[in-house]
Amino acid sequence: MSHNLLRTWSLQRRMLLLLWLAVVSVPSASGAPALQGEVVGIADGDTLTLLVGDVQYRIRLAEIDAQEGGQPWGNRARQALADKVFRAQVRIDVVDLDRYGRTVGKVWLEDRDINREMVREGHAWVYRRYLTDPSLVEDETAARSAGSGLWAQSGAIPPWRWRRNGATPVASGDGAGDQSGSDCRIKGNISSSGAKIYHVPGQRYYDNTRIDTGKGERWFCSEAQARLSGWRRAEV
Q1: Kind and range of the H or E element at 145?
Q2: Are residues 114 and 166 located together in one domain of the fold?
Q3: Residue numbers annotated as active site
């Protein structure tokens, strides 16, 4: 996608966000737009579902990034977030709307900053690409030094790198094991024309497909992960 198209998309996305917030939001303590409702679903350590009235919103926690479900500590991060907010009434201070249509924001449970707690307890990384509050880095550093959460394991892989490069073997702290093993068998292949196509076990060309991570090809643990990463399923 060209720079101009990216800029156009960004402007359109922000205009949509502003119009949407004008309709559904309530003011936060700081005057910023916010959503208030009940947490009715936890997808992973940085994504939840919020019920506002009879409408559900997919919420992506701002400035943090938790291990994916197929990664070591991914399931524990998800459980940690669930333990904090599942079925609780929370406020979301809205920051943005991402390209997947999710609301990006900071989660507050009364006076508790849940995004910060996830970092401070070692359940999430600071997502430096989207960081606006540098003090979060201090919390991550303290968690690393204390060996809290995911930092108790050696060789932890940042989730953004794991998503980019596919399943990568790392030392496991929760029994997840080798990511290229039986749980991550979907092959994300890039054709000579540049098309990103994934093959699942049992498909015609699965056994003959070889993955070269140096070319950007990768393994996936689920078809949903493959589709979100821009791959499409092979037709045969």
Answers
A1: helix 135-146
A2: no
A3: 60, 68, 102
Tokens, residue 220: 């996936």
Residue whose pair of structure tokens reads 């821009």 in the numeric block = 230
Range of the domain at 74: 3-153
Question: pTM, whole model, 2 decimals?
Answer: 0.63
Q: Are residues 118 and 35 in the same domain?
A: yes
Condensed to tens digits (0 to 9), the pLDDT of residues 108-127 reads 999 999 999 999 999 999 99
Structure tokens at 226: 């493959």
Backbone phi and psi for residue 97, each to the nearest 5 degrees, phi listed first = -125, 120
pLDDT tens digits for range 73-115: 999 999 999 999 999 999 999 999 888 889 999 999 999 999 9
Q: What is the arithmetic mean of pLDDT over 6-20?
A: 53
Amino acid at 227: R
Among residues 48, 17, 45, the alpha carbon closest in space to that of 33 is found at 17
**Mean pLDDT, the chain, as a whole number?**
82
| Residue 65: closest CA among 93, 98, 38 | 98
Nearest to 149 by CA among 86, 75, 85: 75
Domain boundary among 94, 122, 153: 153
Q: Is the pLDDT score of 191 beyond 80?
A: yes
